[in-house]
Structures are given as C-alpha cells and as structure tokens.
Design brief:
Blueprint: E1 2-5, H1 12-17, E2 23-37, E3 41-57, H2 60-66, E4 76-84, E5 89-96, H3 107-119, H4 124-132
Antiparallel strand pairs: 1-3, 2-3, 2-4, 4-5
Helix pairs in contact: 3-4
Amino acid sequence: MEVFFYGLFMDQAILEKNGVKPSNPRNGYLENFTLKIGNRASLIASENETAYGVLMTVDEQAIKGLYAEASVADYIPELVTVITENGEVVEATCYNLPLELLTGTNASYAASLHQLASQLDFPQDYLDKIKEMSGPTTDEI
C-alpha cells in the first residue's frame, strides 16, 4: 500500500528498525494541509497550506503493526492525494493524530524533523516553518 509519511517516519532506517520495509520512496506534498507539532506531529486540514513528506510503498500488515505501538496508537488512517516531485498524483494513506489530541510542544522532535527535512531537500520556507516549531516564541513563554 502507498503511505505518506511527514514526520520522523520519513526516515527509512527508523521504519526498518520498527519492522517496516519500505520501497519506492519519493518526495511529495499534500495541498490544503499544514504540519503541526505538539508533543507529537500531525497534519491538519488548512486551506492554501502545503505539507511535505515522503510517499512509500509498504506492507499493509507491517504498517498496521507500526501504528499499533502505544506511542502512535492514537493516529488514524486517512485517504489523501499526494503530488510527487515528478508531478505524479497518487492516492495514499496518511496517519494523523486527531486535532483534539495534538497538545503540548516537543522542541527536540521539531529539531530532529528539521534536520531530516533538510536532508530530503524540502523547500526552504517549509524548513523555516519547522525550525520555528523547534523552540517557543515569545508569546508562548
């Protein structure tokens, strides 16, 4: 099955450590979604926003096993339309945390995600957005 990853699961090594053997990775994006990082990351619907990630082909049972883990068990699968960097349009599953469960902050996660997104060569404005989430702004202190 095709799965769109937008958080640290974009790192194939992390997936493999968790028993998922991804194939056919390609960068892509979702229109009308935005990345939010609380204690965990999620994509939420947001007009005129774009969220970047990696589309991969994975085994359905392996991905169900991955999202059965306690730390990500609250994520729910959602059907999305991914546009790859080559312009291909692909229907895929994306696991998102319901908005009401997206609380707190996690600067360490945001910093790790910024590093990974940089390695994946995501657009600079998206990298800047992630970097902003890696530390509190003055109105959050």
